[in-house]
Amino acid sequence: MAPRANWKGFLRLSLVTCPVALYPATSESEKVSFNQLNRKTGHRIKYAKVDADTGEEVDNEDIVKGYKVDTDTFIEVTKEELENVALESTRTIEIDEFVDRSEIDPRYLIRPYYLRPDGKVGHDAFAVIRETIREMNKVAIGRVVLTNREHIIALEPLDKGLMGTLLRYPYEVRSADEYFDDIQDVKVTKDMLDLARHIVNQKAGHFEPDKFEDQYETALIELINQKRAGKPITAKARPRGENVVDLMDALRKSIGADAASATESQKKPARKARKASAGQKEMLMPIAGKKPAKETAAKKPAAKPQRKSA
Which of 58, 156, 211, 252 has the fewest CB atoms in 10 Å of its CB? Predict the structure, then answer.
């Protein structure tokens, strides 16, 4: 079942308009998450909204937004006042310009969304806009309001739809100068570059996301399984970083180590990428002797064990 749209409105290129819906292209919901507990009772921690001075709990209808001017002074802004400054991009993504994809600095990229026609009408207009962007090999730049803020969005064709990537504003991107100014200017010799290129060629491959494994997530699942089973938890040895004294020697050793590793991997049968849901299924299996059968059956699992692969 497709997730609910984050935004619905219109996509407009000059006088060509069509209704569209915007959906999140990524999700963090399948990751292992934790609740905060009271160590003494094992109960979950509940957060309350309280007045900073009186300590009394405040009802949601009595909470308003305020801009901090100084330590004790705030300018109150009502919901109605915020709605009065609503922009055209609240309901319409207006395409302002077209740029080359290579011109977009990666630091400006925030997160991707899927954009598709909303309903049964407007598919023709959507296709015209999509194929125009594809034919021109450009990225369309527009504006959209999400979570009460206007964002710049870059639109590019993806299969039968469009992928929209939110972009940061210039004031949100820090200058690299303050971080890179202290890096020493080092002369890299041709021999070093030749050895480094050889290492790169040994490790050359193709971008295949299915091969990626979230090792930390796997370790979390293993930790939880062991604790549920009542097994002792032992700390694993951490790899130690070695101080490189002779850079050329380290490069030569790297080539030999990578070659040996490649030979070893060729001997082993190819391992199919396993789905990450296997660990989750195991996590949700009941541990014998923990709770009566009736009580266990009455309660629904707190999380879905299945993980959808991309």
Answer: 211
